[in-house]
Amino acid sequence: MPQLVADGIARSLKERIDSGEWADGSKMPPERELADRFGVARNTIRRAIRMLGDSVPISREVGRGTFFQSNEQTSLSEIIGRMKGAGPADMMEIRQLLEPTAAAFAATNASTGELAQVAKAHRRAVAATDMPDFEHWDAELHHGIFACSRNELLREIHNVLQVLRNQSTWLEMKKRSFSEERRQRYCREHQVLVDALFRRDPDAARSGMQTHLRTVESNILRR
């Protein structure tokens, strides 16, 4: 009989977890409280919790209590949804981690045709006469460098960052920071980067990208 009672309590707890009443990582009510709620002895509650642990990950932390999670895995769309809250400062930190590496990979791995596309984007950015045109070709240049890296995961991470960079907050900051003088400086830094790529010099490409991103960070975040 106690086994049947414990089984029913375990199912009840599982239903509450699945319904979302208790979120992932929540602390389970104390055994005494559960025992009072279900009108059973505490050893029956312990048995129910052990049974629940067969279907729901449970962890016991000394001095803190018992915690549980649902079995549902976090989807990629949920992760990206949470990433939308990232601020421009976070974005620049991630760019400075990823893009110099992508530039170094591109110097080593890119085909001549792929580098020609990067150079084309650079020429179009130099010739741009307004911010939207420049921003388009600037994005194409950076996208091309990630494509040249020949690392599919790195390229797709960059695609996610591009989506985040097209949010209104980021776009407004870029508009406020834009000037013809800064556009010309960006183009000079791009030229250094493109030259390093065509020389197949990964160290110079990495350094060139680092220098460029520090300039962008300073202009956008006013550091």
Biggest sheet architecture: 3 strands, antiparallel
Could you list the spans in which at least 5 consecutive residues all have pLDDT below 50? none
What global shape is seen? elongated
Instruction: Enter the CATH topology name of the largest domain.
Output: Four Helix Bundle (Hemerythrin (Met), subunit A)
**Helical content band:** over 70%
| Derived structural class | mainly alpha
CATH architecture of the largest domain: Up-down Bundle
- Share of β-strand residues: under 5%
Number of domains: 2
H-E order: HEHHEEHHHHHHHH
Number of strands: 3
Mean pLDDT: 85
Question: Could you name the CATH class of the largest domain?
Answer: Mainly Alpha
Radius of gyration: 27 Å
The CATH H-level homologous superfamily of the largest domain: GntR ligand-binding domain-like
Spatial order of the strands in the main sheet?
Answer: 1-3-2
How far apart the termini lie comes to 69 Å
Output the number of helix runs.
Answer: 11
Task: Characterize the structure shown.
The chain is elongated, with a radius of gyration of 27 Å. Strand 2 and strand 3 form a beta hairpin. Helix 6 packs antiparallel against helix 10 (about 180-200) and helix 10 runs antiparallel to helix 11. Helix content is about 75%, strand content about 5%. It contains 11 helices and 3 strands; from the N terminus they run H-E-H-H-E-E-H-H-H-H-H-H-H-H. The protein starts with a helix and ends with a helix. It folds into 2 domains: about 1-70, Winged helix-like DNA-binding domain superfamily/Winged helix DNA-binding domain (Arc Repressor Mutant, subunit A, Orthogonal Bundle), CATH 1.10.10; about 75-220, Up-down Bundle (Four Helix Bundle (Hemerythrin (Met), subunit A)). It has a 3-stranded antiparallel beta sheet, with no helix packed on it. With about 220 residues, the protein is mostly helical.
